[in-house]
Structure formats: structure tokens, C-alpha cells
Amino acid sequence: NREWRKFLAFHTPVRDVEVRCHYAQALLRTGKQKSAAAQAQALWRHGSSRPRACDAVFKTLLSTGALTNEDIWIRFNLAVRAGNTRLAQYLTKRLPAARQAQAARWLALRAQPARVAELQPAADLPDQTLTRYALRRLALADSDAATALWMKLRQRSGYGVPTRTANDGHIGLGLALDHDARAFGWLASLP
To answer: Is the dihedral of CA 57, 63, 64, 65 positive or negative?
Structure first.
């Protein structure tokens, strides 16, 4: 404890993640749980793995509930978006059952974005988010396939304006990156 107090006495804020993890650990070991949780949460909310120096503080805060299931879900989302499927798979195991199923769908769509056609359009925000994510990935990989799929999916009811707008934009961007003249029509239709 004395060493951690010395660390805190001489610590100055830095960008180095490992030092920040030691700082959170020092706060935790000296009884400053709220400050430690705030520091750890900022370190936790990242889409890539963190240094081993963070492991102990993360473990403690997860076990006490200071890092919640919502924090795990947020980090899962960040990991998927960063392309860090290994971290996303690890985090999936820490989620409640309902969220594990959602995470599995998200990872499946990351691997095969064209499977977005299997999702049912609904006012259900998670599925709307998955649809936007998958169509964006598909539009960047194969704009023709994404355009054909979205033209078909768009006919279904249940997609809200934000999802329609986002997907129209993803299609327009994918086509533009492929130097396809159809991009202008898609992008011009955006609000």
C-alpha cells in the first residue's frame, strides 16, 4: 500500500496506457474505488486489448460490478468495429445469455455481411444496428452485391428512417469508392 501511495504522490497524467493502468491500480489499492472505477472505465472502453497491467484492476472492478454488463457490451461493439474479433469473442463469454446471442449474430455478420438478409426488419434497435453494420461492410467489400441486397431489403417494412438513411449512404459510399456513377443518385437522396 505504501508503494501505491508513493506512486500516486508522484504521478502526473500521461497518455501511456500501461502507466494509466498502474494509476488505476494504485487508486484501487489505496481505497479510492470511485476514482479507480472512472479511470478503469476510460481504459476499458477501447476496441483493442489492453496491457497486462490493466488485468488486475479490470478483474476487480468486474467482480464488484463497477464495470457492468453494459460496459462489456460497449467494449464488444468497439472491438467488432475495430476488427478485433478475438477480443470480441472473449467479451462475448462475459455477457448475459441474451446479449451472447446478439453478439454471435454480430460476429456472424462480420464474417459474412450478406447474411444481413436473414435479419427481420423491426423496430428492434439492435437488429437495425446490425443491419447498418453489415451493409456498410458489404458495401465496402462488394458494392454491387450490397446495392442489390439493399434494394431488396428496402422493400420490407420496419426499417426506420435512420437505418434507411445510413444504408443509402453506405451504398452511395461503396459505389463511389468503386467509381460507379450510380453513387451520385444514392448520395443525392440523402437528407
So the answer is: positive
